[in-house]
Amino acid sequence: MKTFFSVLLIFIISFSLEAQTIKLKSIARFDKIHDVDGYGLRYDEKTGTYIYANYDTLRQKKYNLYSNKGNSGNYDVIEDYGVKFDSYGNYFVSASNNITDTTYTYFLLKNGKEIANYDYLNSSWTEKNGILYYVCSEKNKNYLVSYDISNEKFTKSKGYDEINLCSYPKVQFEGEPIGELGFTSDDKPYYIARDNGKTFLVIGDEEQKHYSDIDMYNVIPDSKGNLVYVAKNGGNFDYFGNAFVVQGEKEYKSYDRIDNIILNKDEVPVYVGSDSADEGSPQRVVIGDKEASKTYGEGIYNAGITDDGKLYFIANEKNKMTEAYESFVVFDGKEGKRYPAINNLKILPGNKIFYITQAADDKSIIIIGNDEIKTGYSSVLDAKILPDGTLAYVGAIYGNYDKKEKDKMYVHIGKEKFGPYESVQTIDYVTGDYFKIDDNKNYMYITNHTNSKDEYITNLITKTGKSPIFDGIQNPVLYKGKALYVASYITDKVNYYSKMRVYFDNKPISPEYDVINDFNFDDKTGVVSFTTLKGKEFFKVEIQL
User: Fold this and answer.
1) Cα gap 106→120, rounded to integer Å
2) Alpha-carbon gap, residue 541 to 25, rounded angstroms
3) Burial profile 290-304: b = 16 or more Cβ within 10 angstroms, e = fewer
4) Cβ-proximal residues to 386 (8 Å cutoff; 6+ apart), any chain
5) Helix (H, G, I), strand (E, B) or coil at 82
6) What is the pLDDT of residues 191-214, one digit of tens each?
7) Cβ distance 297 to 276 under 8 Å?
8) What is the 8-class DSSP label of residue 111?
9) Cβ within 8 Å of residue 240, ≥6 positions away
10) Beta strand 243-247 with 213-221: parallel, antiparallel or unpaired?
11) Collapsing DSSP states into helix, strand and coil, what is residue 280?
12) Predicted confidence (pLDDT) per residue in 412-429, tens digit
């Protein structure tokens, strides 16, 4: 199947919506494809390279790629969501064919051409200093492959029984954490390898000391190029016992279990050590080999170090009289008031303690320093202190489904209270925030409710007003005190067709589109950008605010 591509042209729309000028740049046109998927394009704006993965539903039942850098052949699977664009405008993608129901052949495609094939190819690519890194498998051995993009040279590591990537982002999306290839301060790649029953870190191409197991979720580099991690000399981390922290060549004291490893300002590891894995196991905070806290019987959580070196954490113990669990904050060795539970612990400027807890009547309380703010809510979903000291939070009073009583949620910003709403939606799924507020107390948050037809609909609320009713709101940004977002609304409820539009200050600044994809906003230039599909042609759209 052949497809004609349009020449890259730039068109400027001469009309204006809310005084916004809209620029359209043609990316690609696919006249020969019967049904073009509006979300099927992957586009690298810096180099102008794009790929489109097409599935032939009629004859071959195969995928193939179309690109201005080269089309591909046909494959059973193409991992187009994992495409890697390099700074030269090349694209790299993983494809595979089924050999049997359980075996496959994987191919590394560069600009549509096969440049390597493996028994397995992990498409978690990493590019560093012009080198593309990835993990593959051949004949039951795993390798880290480095591909020099400029001279097209492949280099493979030693083969191992297993390779695990062990660098994890500080802010994690929901779901199972996904590891990446890590790099030391001097740009050497590192990962965990397993071979012949032993586990060890590999830095560059040098194997570190061999252990029985290493905790892949607790590996961090220090500024000297050392890796700090938790290892065992017997058994693995499916079971407890004999765990210790390693920093470079130094091994610290053993505990049954180790959690919450961080580095202090002197780059000494700080962690929680447990005496056993049983419920009620004694725990304490350890700095290096020195125990830095007393032992607590029911667990320690959220241990951290302030900028001026003070240790803090949440401790749990049973009340000796009632056997009820109690939680309290320990800050610089001093224990705070005890509550049934504590969450959302933060240390504010001036070492003021901030967290959310529950009272004995199961109502939420916000703690700021020594002050208790009794909210009267079943739960506080999000709370923060603004730079001027203003408290903002979302409170919930839960209803009763059997009695058809709906939840009621309220937004508090200083002395102002808004609501009730059936639901306040998470506005940022990376940070978990329910609202955004700037330094001038301009705010925005998203509410959901059901209408008379029991349909779920959405509004965005700002300081200056409420948006129209939509079926969905995505990509909200607070810019110069005003809300910028993409709204979607269903136009055909039988076939579930919808339209999308960009709004600023609750007013439309774009025409309607069937698709708005790859949305981005540059707050330095005030330019909104995204890709869209019109007919069978993809466009890059830019809107100057």
Assistant:
1) 6
2) 7
3) eebbeebebbbbbbb
4) 392, 437, 439, 441
5) helix
6) 999 999 999 999 999 999 999 999
7) no
8) T
9) 256, 257, 274, 276, 277
10) unpaired
11) coil
12) 999 999 999 999 999 998
Instruction: Give the residue among 226, 230, 223, 165 at the shortest CA–CA distance from 194.
Output: 165
How many CB atoms sit inside 10 A of residue 194's CB?
18
Strand partners, 487: 473, 501
102 to each of 97, 99, 118, how far by Cα in Å?
Answer: 11, 8, 15
Per-residue model confidence as pLDDT tens digits over 137-186: 999 999 999 999 999 999 999 999 999 999 987 655 555 678 899 999 88
Q: What is the dihedral of CA 283, 285, 287, 288, to 10 degrees?
A: 10
- Per-residue confidence (pLDDT) for residue 19, from 0 to 100: 58
Round to whole Å and give the CA distance between 542 and 529: 4
Q: Please report where in the chains the tokens 């810019």 appear, as a residue.
A: 479
Angle made by CA atoms 436, 440, 443, in degrees to the nearest 5: 25
Q: Which amino acid is at 431?
A: T
- Checking if the pLDDT of 289 tops 80, the result is yes
Over residues 481-500, mean pLDDT: 91
Q: Look up residue 75 and give its DSSP letter.
A: B
DSSP, res 277:
S
- Secondary structure letter of residue 80 according to DSSP: G
- The whole-number average pLDDT for the span 12-36 is 77
Other residues' Cβ atoms within 10 Å of the Cβ of residue 461: 21
Q: Check: CB of residue 14 under 8 Å from CB of residue 22.
A: no
How many CB atoms are closer than 10 A to CB 103? 9
Task: Locate 58 and state its tokens.
Answer: 């009629």
pLDDT score of 378 more than 50: yes
Place of tokens 């599935």: 55
Asked whether 273 and 232 are in contact (CB, 8 A), the reply is: no
Rounded distance, CA 212 to CA 507, Å? 61
CA distance 355 to 288: 28
**Which positions ≥6 away from 370 have C-beta within 8 Å?**
none
